[in-house]
């Protein structure tokens, strides 16, 4: 019997439609198709979707990185020049190995990485969002770093500058992806995979949610631009280190 006709004991709950919009990039389609399957299958999806996207994107990024470069998840960044401050918690931090000389706490396991990463070792800090609009993106940029009393006035992104690239990877927004990306282009790199539209919640089981991917080919697609940004961040820091030691 063809798979499309097979009866499963746990059929999809929701009519979550993925409009691939002509995209042929294998990485983009794998991520989007699998995430759509998750969203069709669970109620109150945020607690499931968020961690699922984080882990899937982290695994994808690991496959891009050269040997020796590490990924830590759900971790903060610390600037040695401001040792009592911490960044917000980032979903994914790309960094060189953290040696014992830094005094950082140990990882829960090697796949999760370190809970605290020194900024001199980090290349990029990435947060993933299932949904974000321009207003939410601007609020994110305006967030503050953490201190003991939680009254720090230093913008959280300032802990990263100038060596760590802050990145937001957004699955969907309500308008044009380009509009969302442009809203914070002066502060961080933002990549949005597509646009989401939905009929009213009151439609119940008949409600339709449509996720339309950003169209394009190859290097123009958000995931491939993300990949180039990460690779360039690593190259840039290596170049800066070579200049400093010249």
Features:
246 residues, alpha/beta, six-stranded mixed β-sheet, three-stranded mixed β-sheet
Write a structural description:
With 246 residues, this protein is an alpha/beta fold. It has a domain at 31-162 and 175-193. The chain is built from five helices and nine strands; from the N terminus they run βααββββαβαβββα. The strands form two sheets. A six-stranded mixed sheet has the order 4-2-3-5-6-7. The protein has a three-stranded mixed sheet with strand order 1-9-8, covered by helices on one side. β5 (122-131), α3 and β6 form a beta-alpha-beta unit. α1 (26-41) runs antiparallel to α2. The longest helix is centred in the last third of the chain and has 23 residues, at 222-244. It is globular. The protein starts with 14 loop residues before the first strand and ends with a helix. The relative contact order is 0.16.
Query: Any idea what the shape is?
Result: globular
Largest sheet: 6 strands, mixed
Number of helical segments? 5
List the uncertain runs: none
- Element string (H = helix, E = strand): EHHEEEEHEHEEEH
- Straight-line distance between termini: 67 Å
Please state the CA-atom Rg, rounded to the nearest Å: 20 Å
Mean model confidence by pLDDT? 93
Strand content: 15-25%
Helix-strand makeup class = alpha/beta
Q: How many β-strands, per DSSP? A: 9
Strand order of the largest sheet: 4-2-3-5-6-7
Can you give the helix content as a percent range?
Answer: 25-40%
């Amino acid at each position: 019997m063809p798979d499309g006709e097979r009866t499963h004991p746990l059929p999809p709950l929701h009519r979550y439609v993925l409009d691939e919009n002509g995209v042929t990039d294998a990485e983009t389609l794998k991520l989007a198709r699998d995430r759509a399957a998750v969203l069709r299958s669970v109620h109150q999806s945020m607690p499931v979707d968020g961690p699922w996207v984080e882990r899937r994107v982290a695994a994808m990024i690991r496959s891009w990185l050269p040997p020796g470069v590490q990924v830590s998840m759900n971790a903060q960044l610390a600037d040695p020049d401001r040792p009592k401050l911490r960044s917000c918690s980032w979903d994914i931090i790309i960094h060189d190995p953290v040696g014992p000389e830094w005094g950082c706490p140990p990882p829960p396991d090697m796949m999760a990485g370190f809970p605290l990463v020194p900024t001199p070792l980090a290349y990029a800090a990435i947060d993933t969002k299932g949904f974000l609009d321009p207003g939410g993106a601007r609020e994110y940029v305006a967030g503050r770093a953490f201190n003991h009393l939680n009254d720090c006035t230093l913008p959280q992104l300032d802990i990263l500058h100038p060596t760590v690239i802050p990145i937001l990877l957004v699955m969907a927004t309500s308008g044009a992806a380009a509009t969302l990306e442009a809203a914070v282009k002066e502060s961080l790199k933002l990549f949005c995979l597509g646009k989401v539209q939905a009929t009213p919640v009151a439609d119940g089981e008949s409600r339709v949610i449509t996720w339309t991917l950003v169209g394009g080919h190859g290097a123009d697609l958000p995931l491939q631009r993300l990949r180039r940004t990460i690779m360039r961040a690593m190259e840039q820091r290596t170049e800066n280190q070579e200049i400093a030691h010249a």
